[in-house]
Amino acid sequence: MQISRRALQKSLILFHNIQKWPAALAEEILQACYVKKDFITEAEEKSLLTEVEPHMKRLRYEKSHWDDAIHLYREREQRKWRDENLDVISRIRSESFGANTEHLTYVHILDLHKDGVIKPHIDSIRYCGDVITGVSLLSDAIMRLRHKDQKDVLVVDLLMPRRSLYRLGGPGRYDFTHEVLDETESVWQGQKLPRDRRISIICRDLPKLSNRAIQEEEIKLKPIPEEN
């Protein structure tokens, strides 16, 4: 696949070993997996943080996730949002999903410690559908995708600046693991990328009917208690 070095440097996506990528697969990744810089404003970021921070501060950072995918994190699921923040959630969904998508009611809030990492994994097909999307608060980060069968050859990085939107779909959802690099590995175009605590507000669609968990209790949601 022919992508100029200059174009790659200006973009928020970086293919490793680009000469070894099948052209059709690289094009699918470009269409289905992307980042949009400055998707939300500073004021919108502040509003989201004002709503979620009081709940997150009640939780401790966990060292291991139920599927061993995350280290030093805390997470919640939230269904009800203030009107101004619901507008942002709706905008995320409009950008990343088709018009007739069935959305998961709960929005996932993931708080990753400055020293935390998200290890390579593919999200369970029982708990979410074809697209994983969200906005990054508080810090820049780099997400790395590795093909599940050619993990050292087909590798692509997504630079996720603070307040950007990211989207994973198509082959990036099912055929590639994704991870968030720790600070020691976070290098973009030869420059070290400072990383701090990061909160992501994540929206997902319902899993395909054939993949949905039979028992509702298998879905490990941690809903925020509703106010009286």
UniProtKB/TrEMBL annotation:
High-level lineage: Eukaryota, Metazoa, Ecdysozoa, Nematoda, Chromadorea
Cofactor: Fe(2+)
PANTHER family linked: ALPHA-KETOGLUTARATE-DEPENDENT DIOXYGENASE ALKB HOMOLOG 7, MITOCHONDRIAL, SPERMATOGENESIS ASSOCIATED 11-RELATED
Designated name of the protein: Alpha-ketoglutarate-dependent dioxygenase AlkB-like domain-containing protein
Annotated Gene3D superfamilies: Alpha-ketoglutarate-dependent dioxygenase AlkB-like
SUPFAM superfamilies in the record: Clavaminate synthase-like
The species this protein was found in: Caenorhabditis briggsae
Domain of life: Eukaryota
GO biological process: DNA damage response
InterPro entries per the UniProt record, alphabetical: AlkB-like_sf, ALKBH7-like
